């Protein structure tokens, strides 16, 4: 259903672009569209047809836009950011999230379990000179 409405919407958009480009420029905003007695869109009847066609296509565009937004909202379900079951969600890879179990990061920060001391880096005996390869 959504795909059908999208295809109809795109066809209306393309038709509206074509109809708007066919219309004569009233104020000469682009510097063309003035002048000669001959031309494709010189009669009033053609201008009325293009104006009505533009209005109908604009209405279709508006309706399909509303329909698409309604259809997109139907699949959306509200989600809570708080886990209602009370159990922590597992992180990707099967690991517990930070602070999720005993010995986690939060326990280490609270002082529950001391972190192992990091080994001190060995100082070099002499300064090293970079070598090119």
**Mean pLDDT rating:** 74
Q: Helix- and strand-based class? A: mainly alpha
Low-pLDDT residue spans: none
**Percent in strands:** under 5%
Q: Alpha-carbon distance between the termini?
A: 64 Å
Number of helices: 3
Order of helices and strands: HHH
Helix content: 40-55%
Radius of gyration: 34 Å
Main β sheet profile: none
Overall strand count: 0
Anisotropy-based shape: elongated
Task: Tell me what the structure shows.
By secondary structure, the protein is mainly alpha-helical. It has a domain at 1-23 and 46-73. It has helices spanning 2-22, 44-74, 105-110. Helix 1 packs antiparallel against helix 2.
Summarize the structure.
With 133 residues, the chain is an all-alpha fold. It is built from three helices and no strands.
Chart the SSEs and their pairings.
Elements: H1 2-22, H2 44-74, H3 105-110
State the main characteristics.
133 residues, mainly alpha, 3 helices, 0% strand, elongated
């Amino acid at each position: 259903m959504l795909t059908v409405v999208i295809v109809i919407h795109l066809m209306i958009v393309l038709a509206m672009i074509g109809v708007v480009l066919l219309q004569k420029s009233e104020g000469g905003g682009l510097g063309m569209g003035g002048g000669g007695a001959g031309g494709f869109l010189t009669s009033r009847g053609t201008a009325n047809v293009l104006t009505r066609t533009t209005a109908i296509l604009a209405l279709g565009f508006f309706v399909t836009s509303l329909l698409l937004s309604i259809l997109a909202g139907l699949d959306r379900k509200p989600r809570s950011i708080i886990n209602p079951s009370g159990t922590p969600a597992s992180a990707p890879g099967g690991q517990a999230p930070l602070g999720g179990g005993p010995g986690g990061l939060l326990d280490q920060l609270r002082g529950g379990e001391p972190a192992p001391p990091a080994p001190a880096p060995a100082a070099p005996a002499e300064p090293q000179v970079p070598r090119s390869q």
